[in-house]
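User: Please predict structures.

Assistant: First:
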Amino acid sequence: MKFYSHSLAFLTYSWGLITISFAVSLPAQASIVCEPRTIINHANNSLAACNLGQDMTVQLSSSRAGIYNFPCRAKSYISFDDKGQFQSCKLSRDIEIREANSVKKCLEDYRVDVSVLNNGILSINCYAE
């Protein structure tokens, strides 16, 4: 009986390590639906821009700024830098951006541009097209 409980404990421990290993090592995946014949690639073949086939929300996280959600409108262009980082899209609804002690509103159908500054802070600008 002692051998059985040691074997069961070892198997349970091993299975837990395998499960943790798979949970940690799987890559994150994102899916972007682009309209046909609208895809533009960077020289390294990563996606530069495309016309979205459906509304989608892009979520960005920054240790300094927190989490931002950008609702992007279908039938408009979304763009990324050559490292695959989100850069710009047309908003499908109003959002609020918190900066220091102020809040600015980006309106539906405005274009939002996002970049990461050298100090890790997100720079977010929105404007009417």
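Second:
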Amino acid sequence: MSNKYHYKAYKEGLLQRMAIQGLREKIDPSDENYAEYEKVIKKEISTLEKIKFDGYMLLLADVVLVSREISGFVSCFGSIQNSLTAFVLDIVDVYEFDKNNFKNFTPFAKKPVVNILISSYANGGCVGYIKHKYPDLIKKVKKRTIIFNDDLIIKFIDLGIEIKVKETQE
């Protein structure tokens, strides 16, 4: 694990509790693979805790939730894409339940980047929310990009949806 981060979850075990609850909401606990999924989540979270990235995973879940409230549509991809934990926390929309995919989630060898697709009218609100709630974690803010002290990068990518909707209404 080459990178170490400095944003541990503020409550011990919070990420795991939220992830297991999310798993229960997405997968019936009586599903024959449920125990295996739970095991994978616990392994991912253990890795995140070792590199002190578990707080950022909670931050991402918070940011995506608020972005959905502001924008209506949000989709994420990037460094956390193959994480079952990110899927059950609703950070990413799609997760392929394939045994080989479980092996794809590894600690970041380079700076993690999370891309959040939202409509342009929501960019300011989403960036403003992060600046207001997490000011001590932010190193730099560029228009639609936030760089955190530990070099996690969140990029808000403009879908231009309202422009396309407006064009179809004319």
